[in-house]
Amino acid sequence: MLVTMNDLLLPAKRNGYGVGFFNAVNMEMARAVIETAEELNAPVMVGTAEVLLPAMSLENVATYLIPMAKKAKVPVCVHYDHGLTFEKCMEALKLGFTSVMYDCSTLDYEDNVAKVAEMVKICHGMGVTVEGELGHVGDNEGTGKLDNPSDYYTDPDVAEDYCKRTGVDSLAVAVGNAHGDYKFPPKLDFERIQSIADKTKLPLVLHGGSGLSDSDFRIAVQKGICKVNIFTDIDKAGKAGIEQGLQAGAKTMMNLIPYEIDAMKKVVADKIKLFGSVGKG
Fold first, then answer.
1. Which of 7, 81, 216, 233 is catalytic?
2. Which has fewest Cβ within 10 Å: 19, 37, 69, 240?
C-alpha cells in the first residue's frame, strides 16, 4: 500500500527500529526492493534523488514506482530524495510522490528555514511529508567532498530550533556520514545523534548508509536514526549480479535480469534485517 513517511517512521521511532530507503532508478531495482520487503513483511521507502535523474526521469520513475507501491502487500512510501529545487519538488508532488526531501542544507541557516518551512506548508496541505537537512552531508569524493566534514556537523540546539520553525517530519543529520564509497572507516558521532533525537523529538535520517559497518547501523538506530538511505550497495550488487550472469553463460538482457535482481535482493534483505524492521509491515 502507498503511504507517507510518517506512517513508517513514527512507529519506527516509538519501537526502536529503522526503515530502509532505497533509490530505484529502474524497474529491476524497484522489484528487488519491494519484493524483498513483501517477503520479509517489512515497511520500506523507495524513490529517487535529483542527482539520479539523468539515469531515469522523475516522471518515468513515478510511472513504475507508484503503481508498484499501491499494489504492494506492505506499506511503501515513495520518496523524492535530495530535492534541490522547488520546481522539481513540485513536480514530484504532482506525480504522486508521498514524501519529499527539500535539501537546502548548503544555504545559510535563515534561508534554509524559510524555504523548507514554505515547502512544509505546501506539502502538508496535500497530505505529503517532508524531510529537511541541517548541517551538510558531503560526498566521499568529487565536487561534493568536504575538506573538514566536522565543520558541517548538525548542532543539536540549532536542530531543535530548525525543526520547530520549519515543521519538518524528519531531519537528515550530518554526524560523520558521507555519500558514496568510504575510503576509510567512518566514525559516526553517536552522542550527537542521541542529543539531536532528544531535542527534536523527530525521526532522524542517516544519509550515506552504504559502506557503514553493521555495528554502526545498530548503534545509530538505537540512538534515534529511523530512516537509513542506501543506494551504492544495491547499485554495485546489481552490477555484480550481471557479471555473475555473464560468467554463467547468459547471452541476453532478459536472461541477465534474474541475476541482477537476485543480487540486489540479498543486499536489501540484509539491510532490512539489520535495521530491525522485519515483521513490522
1. 81
2. 240
Residue-wise pLDDT for 158-188, tens only, equals 999 999 999 999 999 988 766 444 444 567 8
Structure confidence by residue, pLDDT tens digits, 221-253:
999 999 999 999 999 999 999 999 999 999 999
Single-letter code of the amino acid located at 22: F
What is the CB neighbour count within 10 angstroms for residue 191? 11
CA-CA-CA-CA dihedral for 21, 26, 31, 33, to nearest 10: -20
In whole angstroms, how far apart are CA 37 and each of 22, 268, 280?
11, 8, 10
Alpha helices in the chain (DSSP H): 5-15, 27-39, 58-71, 86-95, 109-125, 156-166, 190-200, 214-223, 232-247, 253-275
Contact partners, residue 114, CB within 8 Å, separation at least 6: none
Assess whether 81 carries a catalytic annotation. yes
Q: Which residues contact 211 (CB under 8 A, 6 or more apart)?
A: 180, 181, 182, 186, 232, 233
How far is Cα of residue 209 from the mean position of the Cα atoms in its chain? 9
CA of 173: how far to CAs of 33, 135, 156, 166, 274, in Å?
24, 6, 10, 15, 20
Q: Are 210 and 230 in contact (CB under 8 A)?
A: yes
Task: List helix spans (H) across 153-229.
Answer: 156-166, 190-200, 214-223
Residue 270 bridge partners (DSSP): none
Question: Residue 252, exposed/middle/buried by CB under 10 A (0-12, 13-18, 19+)?
Answer: exposed
- Give the 3-state secondary structure of 58-78: HHHHHHHHHHHHHHCCCCEEE
